[in-house]
Amino acid sequence: MTSNDTNLIQRLKRQEEDALEFIVDKYLPLIKGITYKILTPLENKGVIEECINDIFLSIWNNSGKFHGDSDDFKKWICAIAKFKSIDYYRKVTKKVEITSNDIDLNVEKSAEDKLIMQEDRTELIKLINHLEPIERDIFIMKFFLGLNTEEISLKLGLTKSSVDNRIYRGKKRLNQKATNLKLKENGI
Asked: Is the dihedral of CA 36, 60, 149, 171 positive or negative?
């Protein structure tokens, strides 16, 4: 027996896994909308994804506490999403406040610092150009455009583990290439 709108609540309370899958399929857009609305100011997709996963875990773990019909269930899920997102927002902003108070931030960067950063970035781009084209694309998407592994895997038609493996191997090659270049520069 699989979950549907009529038996969803009963199957979820019995901890049937297909009920959770049904909830994810049916309510993911709603939960994403609530979560993104609250957490977008943080500009951290990793936190948003973690929060969404935590919302579904809360629904699963607290399903026995729900009493009501399917309309109430949708409201209950929305309430969980809203309050979980607010909790995440508070947690992340609290961490930022603590760290910013403890550290003396020098907002203005000197011309030297900007030049060093530009040179480092130029060297990194030169090193990345030595990678295979697919690895180069992955590195650009990951480290310059800030995409997460799932987004990269969807854009390139690869599995997440394949993307992670290519990042690991690419970093290893970049380290080796950088070491070889430094040795050459020093005449060794």
From this structure: positive
Q: What is the pLDDT of residues 118-155, one digit of tens each?
A: 666 777 777 778 788 888 888 888 877 888 888 899 98
| 188/28 Cα distance (integer angstroms) | 57
Burial of 23 (0-12, 13-18, 19+ CB in 10 A): buried
Q: How far apart are CA 73 and CA 88, in angstroms?
A: 22
Tell me the per-residue pLDDT of 46-79, one tens digit each, with 9 for 90 and over.
889 999 999 999 998 898 888 888 888 999 999 9
Q: Per-residue pLDDT averaged across 105-120, rounded?
A: 64
What distance in Å separates the CA atoms of residue 45 and residue 147, rounded to the nearest whole number? 9
pTM: 0.51
**SS3 for the chain, per residue?**
CCCCCCCHHHHHHCCCHHHHHHHHHHHHHHHHHHHHHHHHHHCCHHHHHHHHHHHHHHHHHCHHHCCCCHHHHHHHHHHHHHHHHHHHHHHHHHHHHHHHHHCCCCCCCCHHHHHHHHHHHHHHHHHHCCCCHHHHHHHHHHHHCCCCHHHHHHHHCCCHHHHHHHHHHHHHHHHHHHHHHHHHHCCC
